[in-house]
Amino acid sequence: MVQSYLYTTLFILVTLPFSSLASSFTSQHYSDALTKSILFFEGQRSGKLPNNQRVKWRADSALHDGSSANVNLVGGYYDAGDNVKFGLPMAFTTTMLAWSIIEFGDNMKSELANAKAALRWSSDYLVKAATATPGTLYVQVGEPNSDHRCWERPEDMDTPRNVYKISAQNPGSDVAAETAAALAAASIVFQGSDPSYSHKLLQTAMNVFDLANKYRGSYSDSIGSVVCPFYCSYSGYNDELLWGAAWIHKASQDPSYMSYIQSNGHMLGSDDDDFSFSWDDKRAGTKVLLAQAFIENKIDQFQLYKQHSDNYICSLIPGSPNSQARYTPGGLFYKQGESNLQYVTTSSFLLLTYAKYLGSNGGQASCGTTMVTSETLIVQAKKQIDYILGDNPMKMSYMVGFGDRYPTRIHHRGSSVPSVRDHPDHISCDAGHQYYNSGSANPNTHVGAIVGGPDSNDNYGDDRGNYSESEPATYINAPFVGAAAFFSGH
């Protein structure tokens, strides 16, 4: 629909412009947050740790993953405070780490190598999971119910390391297409520095996408008892198919993927306005990614994605005619009670990425009859990132190790149980619960870990037992890496 500009106004926040916005944080603070947000991933590593491992309270773990199926699935990341390797959130984490580097890697400076190492730790694993057995994708290692009954550091794990896979007979289009997106996005990052590896990533992405597209179904239906309720695919798999195709198109410039998006977009959710972006629901992220093609290259077929991206972005801006987002009294975007900061970091990343696309092309977001500038989007994202780092009613940083006050009793096995360096003897499944129930601070400071965050009234109890608030996760940190990089360069 053609917008009449006779009634268009320019929407300006009741704050100072970004360039002069008062803040207690400097670019050095954001650089510190960037360093720590990347360091966090070393504490989540599974497998044989490298000689340059900086997080010293961790040691080798899960060195026989995959052996029960005669495949090598050693490596990758534990998703959060447990010891399971869940494929869907790990793949999304990988995609968001890659996207952070693609958009804001120029601001990472000395941290770029560490960011790429964090990305490669998971992309290496995903390649193994996708190529170990033809026609299959391994999507999980670890039996979650027995794992969750234990409070055990990963180095001592004695719970079953069952492996789970999807195939033509047991489809999992959601996890397969997200894995394809992750590998394609990672291939862009390594194009210049390691072209042969980049090519391998992209080729694997295409093969995994074929599996996702040809044999459609949700992995929740195929292996539901071990992925639900932990990482059920609540949104279905259509959003991942569009997301995966968009990333492969961006990485390959293969016109067949553009044709796929054009032909299938309407069935896969391109017409839906969705106001969430997470490991489960990719619709808002896909639209921002595809909107770039219209904003920068004026590919008319993708104009639809600009309109829907505007709708999503406008939903986040308080006072905008399209505002839908809920905020705490202290100003934090509040989506839901369980691990709310994951939605804060993903939405902040999309605000900054869209601001970049718009700003470099003189564009604006259209919120009904109101135009929103890229600077407004940056201001809104900055409020959210600053809140996480300590500009909040609790005066607490929700990143462990950042600032003077931060969570010390996080819901994380490896952090809360004495390390093997300090306590070499085995600590059993049940024996670990004494540390879970302890009121003491965790013995190992998991630097860079961003926890689930405060409740809807800005309260945070620093309670290890309240996992919704106190558990960190890789998919909370991954988009934050890009946001921290942006502000470290401004």
Task: Record the SSE blueprint.
Blueprint: E1 9-11, H1 27-43, E2 85-86, H2 87-104, H3 112-131, E3 136-141, H4 144-149, E4 163-167, H5 173-189, H6 195-214, H7 219-222, H8 224-227, H9 238-252, H10 255-268, H11 283-297, H12 303-316, H13 341-359, E5 365-367, E6 370-372, H14 374-389, H15 413-416, H16 433-436, H17 467-470, H18 474-488
Parallel strand pairs: 1-6
Antiparallel strand pairs: 2-3, 3-4, 5-6
Helix pairs in contact: 1-18, 2-3, 2-5, 2-18, 3-5, 3-6, 5-6, 5-9, 6-9, 9-10, 9-11, 11-12, 11-13, 13-14, 13-18
Summarize the structure in words.
- 46% of the residues lie in helices and 4% in strands.
- With 490 residues, the protein is mostly helical.
- It has one domain: Glycosyltransferase, CATH 1.50.10.10.
- Strand 5 (365-367) and strand 6 form a beta hairpin.
- The model is unreliable at 1-22 (pLDDT under 50).
> How many independent structural domains?
1
Derived from helix and strand composition plus strand pairing, the structural class reads: mainly alpha
Beginning-to-end CA distance, first to last residue: 36 Å
Number of strands: 6
The largest sheet, given as strand count, sense and whether it forms a barrel, is: 3 strands, mixed
Helix and strand element order: EHEHHEHEHHHHHHHHHEEHHHHH
Give the class-level CATH name: Mainly Alpha
Rg (C-alpha, Å): 22 Å
Low-confidence stretches: 1-22
Q: Mean pLDDT across all residues, rounded?
A: 93
Enzyme class: hydrolase
Active site: 411, 462, 471
Keywords: Carbohydrate metabolism, Cellulose degradation, Glycosidase, Hydrolase, Polysaccharide degradation, Signal
InterPro entries: 6-hairpin_glycosidase_sf, 6hp_glycosidase-like_sf, Glyco_hydro_9, Glyco_hydro_9_Asp/Glu_AS, Glyco_hydro_9_His_AS
